[in-house]
Every structure is written in structure tokens, then in C-alpha cells.
Write a structure and sequence with these properties.
This protein has 437 residues and is of the alpha/beta class. The chain is built from 15 helices and 13 strands. Helices cover 39% and strands 13% of the residues. The strands form two sheets. An eight-stranded mixed β-sheet has the order 3-2-1-4-5-6-7-8, sandwiched between helices. Strands 10-9-11-12-13 form a five-stranded parallel β-sheet, covered by helices on one side. Helix 2 links the parallel strand 1 and strand 2.
């Protein structure tokens, strides 16, 4: 065992290791809190000076993480910085940076590559680097490994490199960072050993695999499995609707089978930072091997068509009432990508809003978790969340239930809205003012 490995293992096991987390968003911030809880000093890095300023003032910018937790972490050593020279101070570097798709639906690795270049001058012997960002198989070996080798440090002896995919489910009260098993794949056996020690400090169960590629592919399989099954049930929703069948009743009935079936529910499209994006990492990489992933791409086509399907149902409902979409006032209920969170990434609600606006309607939204429409890379609305009540609902020609937050009063909405386009199955009984979408 090398001296660097032995020293780092001892630091990790004794909580003397300083943990550096790069990217303080929905993945990095909960991870910071978990390491802080187990007695590790954490140094957080982010290029967003506004985020860093809020954290250093004891404030949270993520709804389900209260500011009191940030203040508590500060009292036990946490600080955030935009100064990447301080990478040299930490023993573990966990990369939680975005990996979006570009306009051609190809992986945009610029955040990972730029981060690797920025930290490279400050790497030293006795550190471990863990990439958590979801990506295509081969990223760790093809993009990070060569850059680390350029420092002159020997990977597996002096410095250690692993891939350990993030697994977060905001709003799911049944799981937290500590209780979600952690996959770890190393570039060498020694890298894997150190990676397991890094995460065993904070996570109840660590699952080692034979390589970084296996770990990368595991993350993709998890999310492609979900995307494909949602695509299937969304397609069945369209067929069931044409046949006059309630797809939600069908799913619930099928879910009583105690084996061989997992329920997935239809909706207005896919949202979040993983499910709409991850399948395209694999389809893109598969082309390098001369393969065409038809099954995955077909499910993507079905899911991407859902916002248009919802708007089509809206137009149908307005037509039945002698109205055109152009000039109508439409309220979208829920613009976060899933219920009971404030996360807007890849939310299908935003695409629905854009389609409605492009067709000449006036669009507004109500979301108790998103008081002001946030700055987004590709979408912009100068809107704030509307308060809804019996009188205000009556001022809209139609409302669309896009995200079914628990805070909405569905009974009040059902009694006062002129037309409801329900993409989440909230109104199961037949109502004259409800169209299922």
C-alpha cells in the first residue's frame, strides 16, 4: 500500500480529511450537509458568487434545505468559496457540476472539462477526486484521467480517481443522502478502495463496482429504465384516451399484481436534471460503436411530444366552448418539474407555457414553490406566481394542471375553474369542466 493511500485512508476513517465539494446545487449542498453531520470539515466551491455569498451568510437557496442547516454547518467549519486555488487545502474533491445537453441533444461536457482544468494546477499527492455528474460511459477515463496525469502524479498511487453517480430525489421523504446506496467505480483497485472509504464515512451502504465505466453505465441504466417506462405509459395514455379509458385507473389496477410490474404514471412530459437528458448520453456514445439505440430514442420521442399533446387537449377544450386559444387567458398550475419541490430544471411546464404563448394566448402561472420565474439558460418569462382563489380562477379561460403540488386546493379549483386540462390525474370522476391530458 502506498504512503499516500495509507495516509488518506487514515484521514477519511478518522474524520480528519477535509472534503471539498465543487458545485453547490441540488446534489452538492445535501452532500455537504451530510459530511458536516459526520464531523468532517467541508469546503464548498462554486463559480456563482451570489450562491457563495448566500451560503456564507447562513442562507439556503434550495427550498427543502432550511437556512438553519446552513448556519449549523457554518458553526462546525463549513465555508463556501469561489477561489479554486484552495483546492490544495482539501483531501477529497467531489465534482457535482452540470452535464446538460447542447441544442443538438449532444452531451455538453464543458462544465466537467473546465472544472478539471481549473483544479489541475492545485492538485497534490494524497487527494481523491470523485466525479458525480451523470455522463456517458468513458468520461472519467477519457476526460479526467489524462488531465490528472498531466500533473505528473501517478493515479492509483499518489492521487486517486473514481466515478460515483449522484442519486438524489428531491421531495421524496422516504430517502435522504445517507440512506441511498452509493455506487463507486475506481480507475484502479486502489482508487476504488479509497473511494469506498470516502463514501462509507457518510453513506450507509456503498456498492463497489469493477470500473468507472460500469459505474457510469449503471447511472444511465437507472434513469433510462425510468424514461423508457414513462414513455410507454405516456403512449398508452394516448391510446387509452382515444378508447375512453382512464389510464390512471388502469395503472392502479395493474399495480395490484404482486410481481413483474412496477407502476409508472403518465404526465405532461419529462423534467429534472436526469430523466429527460441521460438517455441521450448513451445514444450519443453508442454511435461511436456503430450502434443505434432505437428503443431509447423512441421513448424520448414519445416523452418530448407530451407538452404538445397537453396543449392540443387545451385547444380541443376551448373549441368545445366556442373559444380560440389565441387571445385566451391560460393559467398553468405548477411549473417545477415534480410535485412539492422548487426545482425547475427541464420542466415540461415551461415548454407548455412557451407553446401557449407562441399561439397568441396570455399565459400566467401559479406555483407555491416558485414565487418568481427564475433565470434559466434557454427560457424566460417575466412572471411571478399568481395567488389563486374562487374569484381569480374565474378570470381565466382555462387552467392546466402541469405539476400536482400538494399545496393546491383541488376541490376549490374544480368548483371554480371554467376549464381544467388535467395532465396528472387529479380529477378521476367525470366533470363537465375537466379534460384529461
Amino acid at each position: 500500500m502506498s504512503n499516500a493511500k495509507n495516509s488518506l485512508l487514515n484521514k477519511l476513517k478518522s474524520s480528519e480529511a477535509i472534503i471539498g465539494i465543487v458545485g453547490l446545487g441540488y446534489v452538492g449542498l445535501p452532500l455537504m450537509l451530510r459530511y458536516n453531520d459526520v464531523g468532517c470539515r467541508v469546503l464548498g466551491f462554486d463559480i456563482d458568487s451570489e450562491k457563495v455569498g448566500k451560503l456564507n451568510s447562513g442562507k439556503s437557496y434550495i427550498e427543502h434545505i432550511p437556512s438553519e442547516k446552513i448556519t449549523k454547518a457554518q458553526s462546525t467549519g463549513f465555508e463556501a468559496t469561489t477561489t479554486f486555488e484552495r483546492i490544495s487545502e482539501v483531501d477529497a474533491i467531489i465534482l457535482c457540476v452540470p452535464t446538460p445537453l447542447n441544442k443538438h441533444r449532444e452531451p455538453d461536457m464543458s462544465f466537467v472539462i473546465d472544472t478539471a482544468e481549473v483544479i489541475k494546477p492545485f492538485l497534490r499527492a494524497g487527494q481523491i477526486i470523485s466525479l458525480e455528474s451523470t455522463t456517458y460511459p468513458g468520461t472519467t477515463e477519457e476526460e479526467l484521467l489524462p488531465r490528472i496525469r498531466e500533473t505528473g502524479l501517478t493515479v492509483g498511487e499518489e492521487i486517486f480517481l473514481i466515478y460515483s453517480p449522484e442519486r438524489e430525489d428531491p421531495g421524496n421523504l422516504n430517502f435522504e443522502t445517507r440512506t441511498i446506496p452509493k455506487i463507486v467505480g475506481g480507475c484502479t483497485e486502489s482508487c476504488k478502495d479509497v473511494g469506498v472509504a470516502l463514501y462509507l464515512k457518510a453513506i450507509d451502504e456503498v456498492v463497489p463496482v469493477s470500473s468507472t465505466k460500469v459505474a457510469e453505465m449503471t447511472k444511465l441504466l437507472e434513469n433510462i429504465h425510468r424514461a423508457v417506462n414513462i414513455g410507454l405509459v405516456n403512449e398508452m395514455k394516448v391510446v387509452a384516451d382515444r378508447m375512453g379509458i382512464d389510464i390512471f385507473e388502469v395503472v392502479e389496477a395493474a399495480a395490484t399484481k404482486p410481481f413483474g410490474f412496477t407502476p409508472y404514471y403518465p404526465g405532461p412530459g419529462l423534467g429534472g436534471h436526469c430523466i429527460p437528458i441521460d438517455p441521450f448520453y448513451l445514444t450519443w456514445k453508442a454511435r461511436e460503436y456503430g450502434l443505434h439505440t432505437r428503443f431509447i430514442e423512441l421513448s424520448g420521442e414519445v416523452n418530448r411530444a407530451m407538452p404538445e399533446y397537453v396543449v392540443g387537449k387545451l385547444i380541443e377544450g376551448l373549441n368545445e366552448r366556442g373559444k380560440a386559444l389565441k387571445g385566451s387567458k391560460i393559467l398553468v398550475l405548477g411549473i417545477a418539474y415534480k410535485k412539492n419541490v422548487d426545482d425547475m430544471r427541464e420542466s415540461p411546464s415551461v415548454e407548455i407555457m412557451e407553446i401557449i404563448e407562441s399561439k397568441g394566448a396570455k399565459v400566467a402561472y401559479s406555483d407555491p414553490h416558485v414565487p418568481t420565474f427564475p433565470q434559466m439558460r434557454e427560457h424566460h418569462f417575466d412572471l411571478t406566481s399568481e395567488d389563486i382563489g374562487p374569484s381569480s380562477l374565474k378570470s381565466y379561460d382555462a387552467i392546466i394542471i402541469a405539476t400536482d403540488h400538494d399545496k393546491f386546493d383541488y376541490d376549490m379549483i374544480g368548483k371554480n375553474a371554467a376549464l381544467i386540462v388535467d395532465s396528472r390525474g387529479k380529477y378521476r370522476d367525470s366533470q363537465h369542466n375537466v379534460i384529461k391530458a
